[in-house]
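Page 42, continued from yesterday. The earlier attempt failed because a stray header line got pasted into the input along with the sequence. Redoing it now with the clean sequence only.
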Amino acid sequence: MTQQSQRISRRSFLAASALTVASPLVLSSSTLGRERVIPPSERIVMGLIGNGNMGSGLLGAFVGDRRNCQMVAVCDCYRSHLDRGVARVNRDYGNSDCRGYERYEDVLAREDIDAVVIATPDHWHTKMSIEACRAGKDVFCEKPLTHTPAESRQIVAAARRYNRVCSSGSQRVYEDYGYMAPVVQSGALGEVKEAFFECGPAPTDPYYPEEPIPAGLNWCRWLGPAPMVPFHNERRSGNFGGGWRRYSDYGNGFLADWGTHKLAGILYALGIDDVEPIEIIPNTSAPHYRDHYATLVYPG
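This time it went through. Structure tokens are written below.
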């Protein structure tokens, strides 16, 4: 029997404890889960890893869902982002229970945390998701989940091996393109043979001269599994129009950023969002990167 299976989880412990409380103790209706309030033993205890542009938005969403979850940890290797996230959680909850960490491993080591939100640059997603599954945590990871289909298969394998829930998604699939699915799948358009989407350029890997590392930023930690390079703020910036997404070591340009929304919308509408392409044919004759395109061939 593993150490993880031997220990009693917070949920099972509190649920069992509620049945053995001495009779003179009076429990509130909220503790018992009445009045549409989820008891603490049933809330998902969470930690956020990466409090940048998308991370801060996700943090607000999960902190606002007090009925279902409780955020107890924020992790970031940039001190200003870390302190801002911890202060926000504690301010919204009206306490000082949320703790900050520079190392995501310290978040995964906490036995009271049920799930983590991963909102780092893309090059960290695979490693963190697999390690979170191994640590017994469920995962919500920002899109795009991985750089390659092979990495995605590794995450799926880890989730199944450790019996974890691992989720990633695009809000625009349902909000912007969801209306197309019943129309297309009903046959109203006939048999669909081709679909086209535009997503913007691939990474350009621009050069910028070295700059001083800002105080409070652990640049080695930020790079992590990526190659060691001199710091420039553009490499670290979360700017949606550029920043780290311009570099193939960290992201895959708008091909992966905006393209994730659009390609996922098409696959969902066609009902093949769980199918991999059987062939990818790049256009190698394009004279300029903005003219690049590829054809993805799917079964049928």
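Notes: The radius of gyration is 22 Å.
Reminder to self: strip header lines before submitting.
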